[in-house]
Amino acid sequence: MAWSYIVLLSALLGVSWCAEDWTFPPGFKFGAASASYQVEGGWNASDKGESIWDRFTHTRPQNIADGSNGDVACDSYNLWQTDIDNMKALGLHFYRFSISSFWPRLLPSGFPNYTSEDGKRYYNDLIDGLLKEGIEPMVTLYHWDLPQTLQDLGGWTNPLIADWFADYARVAYSLFGDRVKLWLTINEPLIMCDYPFNSGLLAPGIFSPDHGTYLCNRHVLLAHAKAYRLYDEEFRDQCNGEVSIANHLLWYEAWTEDDEEIAELARQNMGGRYSHAIYSEEGGWPSSIEKVMEENSKKKGYCKSLLPAFTSDEIELIKGTYDYYALNYYTSRLVRPAKEGEELTVYPIGDIPDLKAKTGTRPEWTATNSSFIYVAPEGIRKQLVWLKKTYGDMKVAITENGAPDLGGLNDQGRIDYYREHLKQVLLAIKEDGINVTHYTAWTLMDNFEWAEGYSSKFGLYEVNFTDPLRTRTPRDSAAYYANIIKNNGLKADS
Ligand code: BGC
User: Fold this and answer.
1) Is 364 known to be catalytic?
2) Can you give the pLDDT of all 494 residues of the chain as single tens digits?
3) Where are the alpha helices (DSSP H) in 431-490?
4) 182 vs 33: CA distance, rounded Å
5) 38 Cα to the center of ligand 1, angstroms
Protein backbone atom coordinates (compact mmCIF):
# COMPACT_ATOMS: atom_id res chain seq x y z
CA MET A 1 0.00 0.00 0.00
CA ALA A 2 1.37 3.42 -0.91
CA TRP A 3 2.71 5.31 2.08
CA SER A 4 0.63 8.38 1.24
CA TYR A 5 -2.48 6.23 1.21
CA ILE A 6 -1.68 4.90 4.69
CA VAL A 7 -1.12 8.44 5.94
CA LEU A 8 -4.42 9.63 4.50
CA LEU A 9 -6.34 6.64 5.76
CA SER A 10 -4.85 6.98 9.24
CA ALA A 11 -5.72 10.66 9.32
CA LEU A 12 -9.30 9.98 8.20
CA LEU A 13 -9.81 7.19 10.69
CA GLY A 14 -7.95 9.03 13.43
CA VAL A 15 -5.89 5.92 14.21
CA SER A 16 -2.19 5.69 14.86
CA TRP A 17 -0.10 3.93 12.26
CA CYS A 18 0.98 0.34 12.67
CA ALA A 19 4.50 -0.35 13.88
CA GLU A 20 6.04 -1.16 10.48
CA ASP A 21 5.02 2.24 9.15
CA TRP A 22 7.59 3.91 11.35
CA THR A 23 10.42 1.76 10.12
CA PHE A 24 13.43 3.27 8.39
CA PRO A 25 14.67 1.89 5.07
CA PRO A 26 16.96 -1.15 5.39
CA GLY A 27 20.56 -0.14 5.94
CA PHE A 28 19.64 3.20 7.55
CA LYS A 29 22.38 4.20 10.01
CA PHE A 30 21.98 5.64 13.50
CA GLY A 31 24.81 7.33 15.34
CA ALA A 32 25.72 9.90 17.96
CA ALA A 33 28.12 12.82 17.80
CA SER A 34 30.61 14.75 19.88
CA ALA A 35 33.40 17.25 19.28
CA SER A 36 36.99 17.23 20.48
CA TYR A 37 37.02 20.38 22.63
CA GLN A 38 33.66 19.52 24.13
CA VAL A 39 34.65 16.04 25.38
CA GLU A 40 38.36 15.29 25.23
CA GLY A 41 39.96 17.35 27.96
CA GLY A 42 43.70 16.70 28.13
CA TRP A 43 44.05 20.30 26.99
CA ASN A 44 47.80 20.38 27.55
CA ALA A 45 48.53 16.64 27.57
CA SER A 46 51.82 15.62 26.07
CA ASP A 47 52.79 18.04 23.29
CA LYS A 48 49.32 19.24 22.34
CA GLY A 49 49.21 22.83 21.05
CA GLU A 50 46.91 25.52 22.43
CA SER A 51 43.60 26.05 20.62
CA ILE A 52 41.52 29.21 20.38
CA TRP A 53 39.03 27.69 22.80
CA ASP A 54 41.79 26.99 25.33
CA ARG A 55 42.89 30.61 25.06
CA PHE A 56 39.36 32.04 25.10
CA THR A 57 38.11 30.11 28.14
CA HIS A 58 41.34 30.75 30.08
CA THR A 59 41.40 34.47 29.42
CA ARG A 60 37.70 35.29 29.25
CA PRO A 61 35.87 32.99 31.69
CA GLN A 62 33.28 35.76 32.10
CA ASN A 63 32.01 34.85 28.63
CA ILE A 64 31.17 31.30 29.72
CA ALA A 65 27.91 30.95 31.71
CA ASP A 66 29.54 29.05 34.59
CA GLY A 67 33.09 30.34 34.07
CA SER A 68 34.21 26.83 33.13
CA ASN A 69 36.42 25.47 30.36
CA GLY A 70 37.19 22.26 28.48
CA ASP A 71 40.49 21.52 30.28
CA VAL A 72 39.14 18.17 31.49
CA ALA A 73 35.61 18.13 30.03
CA CYS A 74 34.46 14.46 29.89
CA ASP A 75 38.09 13.34 29.99
CA SER A 76 37.55 11.29 26.84
CA TYR A 77 41.26 11.71 26.26
CA ASN A 78 41.61 9.02 28.94
CA LEU A 79 38.13 7.49 28.99
CA TRP A 80 37.59 6.79 25.29
CA GLN A 81 37.17 3.06 25.95
CA THR A 82 34.30 3.79 28.36
CA ASP A 83 32.73 5.94 25.66
CA ILE A 84 32.98 3.06 23.20
CA ASP A 85 31.40 0.69 25.74
CA ASN A 86 28.50 3.14 26.07
CA MET A 87 28.13 3.41 22.30
CA LYS A 88 28.06 -0.38 22.15
CA ALA A 89 25.29 -0.46 24.74
CA LEU A 90 23.30 1.93 22.55
CA GLY A 91 23.95 -0.21 19.47
CA LEU A 92 25.30 2.75 17.48
CA HIS A 93 26.20 2.09 13.85
CA PHE A 94 28.59 5.04 13.75
CA TYR A 95 30.18 7.65 15.97
CA ARG A 96 30.84 11.17 14.79
CA PHE A 97 33.80 12.84 16.54
CA SER A 98 36.27 15.54 15.64
CA ILE A 99 40.02 15.39 15.61
CA SER A 100 41.34 18.12 17.84
CA SER A 101 41.73 18.96 19.23
CA PHE A 102 42.63 17.35 16.00
CA TRP A 103 44.39 20.06 14.68
CA PRO A 104 46.37 21.28 17.72
CA ARG A 105 46.64 17.79 19.22
CA LEU A 106 47.89 16.22 16.02
CA LEU A 107 49.82 19.18 14.61
CA PRO A 108 50.86 21.13 17.70
CA SER A 109 52.31 24.01 15.66
CA GLY A 110 49.28 24.15 13.36
CA PHE A 111 51.53 23.21 10.45
CA PRO A 112 52.55 19.76 9.17
CA ASN A 113 56.25 20.27 9.95
CA TYR A 114 55.79 17.98 12.92
CA THR A 115 53.10 15.44 13.85
CA SER A 116 52.52 14.54 17.48
CA GLU A 117 53.09 10.86 18.27
CA ASP A 118 50.67 11.20 21.17
CA GLY A 119 48.00 12.74 18.92
CA LYS A 120 48.41 9.90 16.43
CA ARG A 121 48.21 7.31 19.18
CA TYR A 122 45.06 8.82 20.64
CA TYR A 123 43.10 8.92 17.39
CA ASN A 124 44.42 5.53 16.24
CA ASP A 125 43.30 3.97 19.52
CA LEU A 126 39.87 5.56 19.25
CA ILE A 127 39.36 4.59 15.61
CA ASP A 128 40.61 1.03 16.11
CA GLY A 129 38.53 0.68 19.28
CA LEU A 130 35.40 1.74 17.41
CA LEU A 131 36.02 -0.57 14.49
CA LYS A 132 36.64 -3.48 16.84
CA GLU A 133 33.05 -3.04 18.05
CA GLY A 134 31.67 -2.61 14.55
CA ILE A 135 31.07 1.14 15.03
CA GLU A 136 32.00 3.20 12.01
CA PRO A 137 34.02 6.37 12.63
CA MET A 138 32.67 9.56 11.04
CA VAL A 139 35.38 12.17 11.46
CA THR A 140 35.05 15.94 11.45
CA LEU A 141 38.37 17.59 10.68
CA TYR A 142 37.47 20.89 12.29
CA HIS A 143 34.94 21.52 15.05
CA TRP A 144 36.09 25.00 16.06
CA ASP A 145 39.32 24.40 17.97
CA LEU A 146 41.73 26.23 15.71
CA PRO A 147 45.40 26.16 16.74
CA GLN A 148 46.12 29.48 18.46
CA THR A 149 49.29 29.75 16.32
CA LEU A 150 47.08 30.06 13.24
CA GLN A 151 44.75 32.51 14.97
CA ASP A 152 47.79 34.67 15.69
CA LEU A 153 48.25 34.83 11.92
CA GLY A 154 44.66 35.96 11.38
CA GLY A 155 42.88 32.59 11.59
CA TRP A 156 39.90 32.27 9.29
CA THR A 157 40.25 35.85 8.03
CA ASN A 158 43.61 35.04 6.40
CA PRO A 159 43.14 33.63 2.86
CA LEU A 160 46.14 31.34 3.37
CA ILE A 161 44.10 29.30 5.81
CA ALA A 162 42.54 27.42 2.91
CA ASP A 163 45.97 25.92 2.13
CA TRP A 164 46.86 25.39 5.78
CA PHE A 165 43.62 23.49 6.20
CA ALA A 166 44.29 21.35 3.13
CA ASP A 167 47.80 20.54 4.44
CA TYR A 168 46.25 19.43 7.70
CA ALA A 169 43.59 17.41 5.87
CA ARG A 170 46.33 15.57 3.97
CA VAL A 171 47.93 14.50 7.25
CA ALA A 172 44.57 13.26 8.57
CA TYR A 173 43.62 11.42 5.39
CA SER A 174 47.00 9.73 5.16
CA LEU A 175 47.06 8.68 8.81
CA PHE A 176 43.45 7.53 9.15
CA GLY A 177 41.98 7.29 5.64
CA ASP A 178 42.56 3.53 5.48
CA ARG A 179 39.94 3.14 8.25
CA VAL A 180 37.84 6.32 8.17
CA LYS A 181 35.42 6.38 5.25
CA LEU A 182 33.13 9.20 6.31
CA TRP A 183 34.73 12.63 6.51
CA LEU A 184 33.36 16.05 7.31
CA THR A 185 35.75 18.89 6.65
CA ILE A 186 34.27 21.65 8.81
CA ASN A 187 31.47 21.82 11.34
CA GLU A 188 28.84 24.52 10.98
CA PRO A 189 30.57 27.42 9.26
CA LEU A 190 27.51 29.56 10.07
CA ILE A 191 28.10 29.15 13.79
CA MET A 192 31.88 29.48 13.57
CA CYS A 193 31.86 32.59 11.31
CA ASP A 194 28.63 34.55 11.81
CA TYR A 195 28.18 34.21 15.55
CA PRO A 196 31.71 34.77 16.84
CA PHE A 197 32.40 37.72 14.54
CA ASN A 198 28.94 39.25 14.94
CA SER A 199 29.14 39.17 18.71
CA GLY A 200 32.78 38.81 19.80
CA LEU A 201 31.40 36.51 22.50
CA LEU A 202 32.73 33.17 21.22
CA ALA A 203 36.34 32.20 20.43
CA PRO A 204 38.45 33.80 19.11
CA GLY A 205 36.67 36.71 20.81
CA ILE A 206 36.98 39.14 17.91
CA PHE A 207 34.13 41.50 17.09
CA SER A 208 34.16 42.18 13.35
CA PRO A 209 30.66 41.94 11.90
CA ASP A 210 31.44 43.80 8.69
CA HIS A 211 34.62 42.00 7.72
CA GLY A 212 35.41 38.98 9.91
CA THR A 213 32.11 37.24 9.19
CA TYR A 214 32.36 37.38 5.40
CA LEU A 215 36.11 36.74 5.13
CA CYS A 216 35.60 33.69 7.32
CA ASN A 217 32.62 32.63 5.17
CA ARG A 218 34.67 32.85 1.98
CA HIS A 219 37.76 31.12 3.35
CA VAL A 220 35.81 28.29 4.94
CA LEU A 221 34.30 27.44 1.55
CA LEU A 222 37.73 27.52 -0.09
CA ALA A 223 39.32 25.46 2.69
CA HIS A 224 36.56 22.86 2.41
CA ALA A 225 36.90 22.74 -1.38
CA LYS A 226 40.67 22.31 -1.25
CA ALA A 227 40.40 19.51 1.29
CA TYR A 228 37.72 17.84 -0.86
CA ARG A 229 39.75 18.11 -4.09
CA LEU A 230 42.80 16.80 -2.32
CA TYR A 231 40.86 13.73 -1.24
CA ASP A 232 39.76 13.22 -4.86
CA GLU A 233 43.25 13.60 -6.23
CA GLU A 234 45.33 11.74 -3.69
CA PHE A 235 43.12 9.42 -1.64
CA ARG A 236 39.80 8.51 -3.19
CA ASP A 237 41.11 5.66 -5.34
CA GLN A 238 42.73 3.75 -2.49
CA CYS A 239 40.46 4.87 0.36
CA ASN A 240 37.08 5.02 -1.28
CA GLY A 241 35.50 7.28 1.34
CA GLU A 242 33.06 10.19 1.25
CA VAL A 243 33.63 13.83 2.13
CA SER A 244 31.23 16.66 2.93
CA ILE A 245 30.85 19.74 5.16
CA ALA A 246 28.35 19.91 8.04
CA ASN A 247 25.96 22.85 7.74
CA HIS A 248 23.74 24.16 10.50
CA LEU A 249 20.43 25.12 8.94
CA LEU A 250 17.66 26.80 10.85
CA TRP A 251 14.37 26.48 9.09
CA TYR A 252 13.09 30.02 8.41
CA GLU A 253 9.37 30.18 7.96
CA ALA A 254 7.26 33.13 6.74
CA TRP A 255 5.62 34.88 9.74
CA THR A 256 2.54 35.66 7.67
CA GLU A 257 1.73 34.62 4.14
CA ASP A 258 3.05 37.97 2.92
CA ASP A 259 6.51 37.22 4.30
CA GLU A 260 7.52 34.40 1.96
CA GLU A 261 10.03 36.56 0.11
CA ILE A 262 11.97 37.54 3.22
CA ALA A 263 11.77 33.97 4.53
CA GLU A 264 13.47 32.70 1.38
CA LEU A 265 16.06 35.48 1.67
CA ALA A 266 16.73 34.39 5.25
CA ARG A 267 17.22 30.77 4.11
CA GLN A 268 19.65 31.95 1.47
CA ASN A 269 21.50 34.18 3.90
CA MET A 270 21.87 31.69 6.72
CA GLY A 271 22.03 28.47 4.68
CA GLY A 272 22.68 29.43 1.07
CA ARG A 273 25.71 31.54 1.97
CA TYR A 274 27.39 28.30 3.10
CA SER A 275 25.77 25.89 0.63
CA HIS A 276 25.09 27.55 -2.71
CA ALA A 277 28.76 27.63 -3.75
CA ILE A 278 29.05 23.89 -3.17
CA TYR A 279 25.67 22.41 -4.09
CA SER A 280 24.06 24.68 -6.69
CA GLU A 281 24.56 24.24 -10.42
CA GLU A 282 25.95 27.73 -10.97
CA GLY A 283 28.13 27.93 -7.84
CA GLY A 284 29.30 31.14 -6.14
CA TRP A 285 27.24 33.22 -3.72
CA PRO A 286 23.43 33.16 -3.87
CA SER A 287 22.60 36.06 -6.21
CA SER A 288 19.89 37.45 -3.89
CA ILE A 289 22.43 37.77 -1.08
CA GLU A 290 25.08 39.27 -3.34
CA LYS A 291 22.56 41.98 -4.22
CA VAL A 292 21.61 42.71 -0.61
CA MET A 293 25.25 42.81 0.44
CA GLU A 294 26.19 45.18 -2.36
CA GLU A 295 23.44 47.61 -1.35
CA ASN A 296 24.25 47.32 2.36
CA SER A 297 27.96 47.86 1.78
CA LYS A 298 27.30 50.98 -0.27
CA LYS A 299 25.00 52.36 2.42
CA LYS A 300 27.73 51.78 4.99
CA GLY A 301 30.13 53.80 2.83
CA TYR A 302 32.28 50.96 1.49
CA CYS A 303 33.37 51.11 -2.14
CA LYS A 304 33.25 47.33 -2.54
CA SER A 305 30.85 44.67 -1.34
CA LEU A 306 31.65 43.29 2.09
CA LEU A 307 30.86 39.87 0.66
CA PRO A 308 34.20 39.24 -1.02
CA ALA A 309 33.80 38.05 -4.61
CA PHE A 310 35.02 34.67 -5.83
CA THR A 311 37.09 34.45 -9.02
CA SER A 312 35.68 32.19 -11.72
CA ASP A 313 38.41 29.64 -10.91
CA GLU A 314 37.35 29.67 -7.28
CA ILE A 315 33.73 29.16 -8.25
CA GLU A 316 34.74 26.08 -10.26
CA LEU A 317 37.01 24.86 -7.46
CA ILE A 318 34.20 24.92 -4.87
CA LYS A 319 31.29 23.78 -7.03
CA GLY A 320 30.34 20.13 -6.60
CA THR A 321 32.71 19.39 -3.70
CA TYR A 322 30.40 16.99 -1.88
CA ASP A 323 29.49 13.34 -1.74
CA TYR A 324 26.42 13.96 0.43
CA TYR A 325 24.71 16.83 2.24
CA ALA A 326 25.46 16.89 5.97
CA LEU A 327 22.65 18.65 7.84
CA ASN A 328 22.68 19.75 11.47
CA TYR A 329 19.16 20.72 12.48
CA TYR A 330 17.98 21.94 15.88
CA THR A 331 15.27 24.54 15.52
CA SER A 332 13.18 26.92 13.39
CA ARG A 333 12.33 30.62 13.31
CA LEU A 334 9.53 32.75 11.95
CA VAL A 335 10.70 35.73 9.95
CA ARG A 336 9.21 39.03 8.78
CA PRO A 337 10.52 42.46 7.73
CA ALA A 338 11.50 44.59 10.73
CA LYS A 339 9.31 47.58 11.47
CA GLU A 340 10.74 51.09 11.30
CA GLY A 341 13.00 51.65 14.32
CA GLU A 342 12.51 48.09 15.66
CA GLU A 343 15.49 46.83 17.63
CA LEU A 344 17.33 43.85 16.12
CA THR A 345 19.53 41.52 18.16
CA VAL A 346 21.85 39.06 16.45
CA TYR A 347 23.14 36.86 19.22
CA PRO A 348 22.45 34.12 20.03
CA ILE A 349 20.70 33.11 16.80
CA GLY A 350 18.40 36.08 16.63
CA ASP A 351 17.36 38.66 14.10
CA ILE A 352 19.10 39.25 10.78
CA PRO A 353 20.13 42.92 10.52
CA ASP A 354 21.64 42.49 7.03
CA LEU A 355 18.14 41.68 5.79
CA LYS A 356 16.38 44.02 8.23
CA ALA A 357 14.54 40.93 9.34
CA LYS A 358 12.90 40.22 12.68
CA THR A 359 12.62 36.62 13.82
CA GLY A 360 10.28 34.93 16.27
CA THR A 361 8.74 31.63 17.23
CA ARG A 362 5.32 29.98 17.16
CA PRO A 363 3.53 29.54 20.51
CA GLU A 364 3.40 25.77 19.95
CA TRP A 365 7.20 25.54 19.56
CA THR A 366 8.08 24.71 23.15
CA ALA A 367 11.00 26.60 24.65
CA THR A 368 13.98 24.74 26.14
CA ASN A 369 16.55 25.99 28.63
CA SER A 370 18.62 27.15 25.64
CA SER A 371 17.42 30.49 24.34
CA PHE A 372 18.25 29.26 20.88
CA ILE A 373 16.33 25.99 20.73
CA TYR A 374 12.56 25.93 20.39
CA VAL A 375 11.13 22.52 19.60
CA ALA A 376 9.91 22.68 15.99
CA PRO A 377 10.07 19.17 14.54
CA GLU A 378 8.26 19.92 11.26
CA GLY A 379 11.16 22.23 10.42
CA ILE A 380 13.50 19.33 9.80
CA ARG A 381 11.21 17.90 7.13
CA LYS A 382 10.63 21.30 5.53
CA GLN A 383 14.36 21.86 5.53
CA LEU A 384 15.00 18.53 3.81
CA VAL A 385 12.39 19.34 1.17
CA TRP A 386 13.95 22.78 0.61
CA LEU A 387 17.39 21.22 0.12
CA LYS A 388 16.06 18.87 -2.55
CA LYS A 389 14.11 21.63 -4.27
CA THR A 390 17.02 24.06 -4.17
CA TYR A 391 20.00 21.82 -4.93
CA GLY A 392 18.48 18.65 -6.38
CA ASP A 393 18.28 15.07 -5.28
CA MET A 394 21.26 13.98 -3.21
CA LYS A 395 22.17 11.77 -0.32
CA VAL A 396 21.60 13.51 3.03
CA ALA A 397 23.10 12.59 6.38
CA ILE A 398 21.60 14.27 9.43
CA THR A 399 24.81 14.89 11.33
CA GLU A 400 23.32 16.57 14.43
CA ASN A 401 19.90 16.81 16.06
CA GLY A 402 19.12 17.03 19.75
CA ALA A 403 17.74 19.02 22.64
CA PRO A 404 19.08 20.38 25.91
CA ASP A 405 17.74 20.27 29.44
CA LEU A 406 19.05 21.09 32.89
CA GLY A 407 19.94 17.51 33.82
CA GLY A 408 18.51 14.45 35.53
CA LEU A 409 18.08 10.88 34.34
CA ASN A 410 14.41 11.18 33.52
CA ASP A 411 14.56 13.14 30.28
CA GLN A 412 11.14 12.73 28.73
CA GLY A 413 11.57 16.06 26.93
CA ARG A 414 14.56 14.71 25.03
CA ILE A 415 12.71 11.47 24.21
CA ASP A 416 9.80 13.49 22.81
CA TYR A 417 12.20 15.64 20.82
CA TYR A 418 13.90 12.64 19.22
CA ARG A 419 10.62 10.86 18.52
CA GLU A 420 8.97 13.84 16.85
CA HIS A 421 12.04 14.68 14.75
CA LEU A 422 12.53 11.08 13.66
CA LYS A 423 8.89 10.94 12.58
CA GLN A 424 9.43 13.99 10.41
CA VAL A 425 12.60 12.46 8.95
CA LEU A 426 10.61 9.34 8.10
CA LEU A 427 7.93 11.43 6.41
CA ALA A 428 10.64 13.19 4.40
CA ILE A 429 11.99 9.83 3.31
CA LYS A 430 8.70 8.13 2.57
CA GLU A 431 6.45 10.99 1.49
CA ASP A 432 8.89 13.43 -0.08
CA GLY A 433 11.36 10.91 -1.48
CA ILE A 434 14.40 12.42 0.23
CA ASN A 435 17.39 10.11 0.35
CA VAL A 436 18.30 10.40 4.04
CA THR A 437 20.85 7.74 4.97
CA HIS A 438 22.13 8.65 8.46
CA TYR A 439 20.72 10.16 11.65
CA THR A 440 23.03 11.47 14.37
CA ALA A 441 21.89 12.26 17.89
CA TRP A 442 23.59 15.23 19.51
CA THR A 443 25.03 14.11 21.78
CA LEU A 444 26.45 10.94 23.24
CA MET A 445 27.03 12.48 26.67
CA ASP A 446 26.81 15.85 28.43
CA ASN A 447 29.79 17.96 27.54
CA PHE A 448 31.23 21.47 27.44
CA GLU A 449 28.47 23.41 25.73
CA TRP A 450 30.55 26.39 24.54
CA ALA A 451 29.28 29.69 26.01
CA GLU A 452 26.85 27.75 28.21
CA GLY A 453 29.67 25.80 29.86
CA TYR A 454 28.34 22.72 31.67
CA SER A 455 25.00 24.31 32.54
CA SER A 456 23.16 22.93 29.53
CA LYS A 457 22.90 19.16 29.06
CA PHE A 458 22.39 17.45 25.73
CA GLY A 459 23.57 13.91 26.57
CA LEU A 460 22.03 10.49 26.14
CA TYR A 461 24.42 9.82 29.01
CA GLU A 462 24.63 12.08 32.03
CA VAL A 463 28.18 12.98 33.07
CA ASN A 464 29.05 13.83 36.64
CA PHE A 465 31.47 16.73 36.22
CA THR A 466 32.27 17.00 39.92
CA ASP A 467 33.45 13.39 40.02
CA PRO A 468 37.12 13.09 39.06
CA LEU A 469 36.15 9.87 37.28
CA ARG A 470 33.58 11.73 35.18
CA THR A 471 31.09 8.89 35.68
CA ARG A 472 28.65 8.44 32.81
CA THR A 473 25.08 7.23 33.54
CA PRO A 474 22.51 6.40 30.86
CA ARG A 475 19.42 8.59 30.83
CA ASP A 476 15.96 7.32 29.89
CA SER A 477 16.62 8.66 26.39
CA ALA A 478 19.57 6.25 26.05
CA ALA A 479 17.26 3.24 26.43
CA TYR A 480 14.77 4.89 24.10
CA TYR A 481 17.39 5.52 21.40
CA ALA A 482 18.82 1.99 21.80
CA ASN A 483 15.33 0.63 21.09
CA ILE A 484 14.93 2.75 18.01
CA ILE A 485 18.24 1.43 16.71
CA LYS A 486 17.32 -2.16 17.56
CA ASN A 487 13.95 -1.86 15.79
CA ASN A 488 15.28 0.30 12.94
CA GLY A 489 12.47 2.71 13.73
CA LEU A 490 9.78 3.78 16.13
CA LYS A 491 7.01 1.70 17.53
CA ALA A 492 3.51 3.08 16.97
CA ASP A 493 3.04 3.67 20.68
CA SER A 494 6.47 5.12 21.42
C1 BGC B 1 27.30 22.35 17.57
C2 BGC B 1 27.63 21.60 18.83
C3 BGC B 1 26.79 22.14 19.97
C4 BGC B 1 25.34 21.94 19.63
C5 BGC B 1 24.35 22.32 20.72
C6 BGC B 1 25.82 22.60 17.38
O7 BGC B 1 25.60 23.78 16.73
O8 BGC B 1 27.85 21.70 16.45
O9 BGC B 1 29.01 21.71 19.06
O10 BGC B 1 27.12 21.55 21.19
O11 BGC B 1 25.05 22.74 18.51
O12 BGC B 1 24.40 23.67 21.01
Assistant:
1) no
2) 344 444 444 444 444 444 457 999 999 999 999 999 999 999 999 999 999 999 999 999 999 999 999 999 999 999 999 999 999 999 999 999 999 855 778 888 888 888 999 999 999 999 999 999 999 999 999 999 999 999 999 999 999 999 999 999 999 999 999 999 999 999 999 999 999 999 999 999 999 999 999 999 999 999 999 999 999 999 999 999 999 999 999 999 999 999 999 999 999 999 999 999 999 999 999 999 999 999 999 999 999 999 999 999 999 999 999 999 999 999 999 999 999 999 998 876 789 999 999 999 999 999 999 989 999 999 999 999 999 999 999 999 999 999 999 999 999 999 999 999 999 999 999 999 999 999 999 999 999 999 999 999 999 999 999 999 999 999 999 999 999 999 999 986 56
3) 476-487
4) 13
5) 9
> What's the whole-model pTM score?
0.95
Q: Among 40, 50, 242, 400, which one carries the catalytic annotation?
A: 400
Question: Is residue 442 within 6 Å of ligand 1 at its C-beta?
Answer: yes
| 223 within some domain | yes
Which neighbouring-strand residues pair with 336? Answer: 358
Any domain includes 231: yes
Residue 297 counted as domain residue: no
Quote the CA–CA distance of 100 and 39 in Å, as a whole number. Answer: 10
CATH number at residue 366: 3.20.20.80
Q: How many domains does the chain have?
A: 1
Ligand 1 mutation pick, 37, 270, 450, max ligand atoms within 8 A of CB: 450
Ligand 1 center to residue 440 CA distance, Å? 12
Question: Does 394 fall in a domain?
Answer: yes
Short-list 68, 166, 105, CA closest to 455:
68
Of 124, 123, 83, whose CA–CA distance to 103 is shortest? 123
Q: What is the domain extent for residue 135?
A: 24-261+320-330+362-487
Count of positions (residues) in the chain: 494
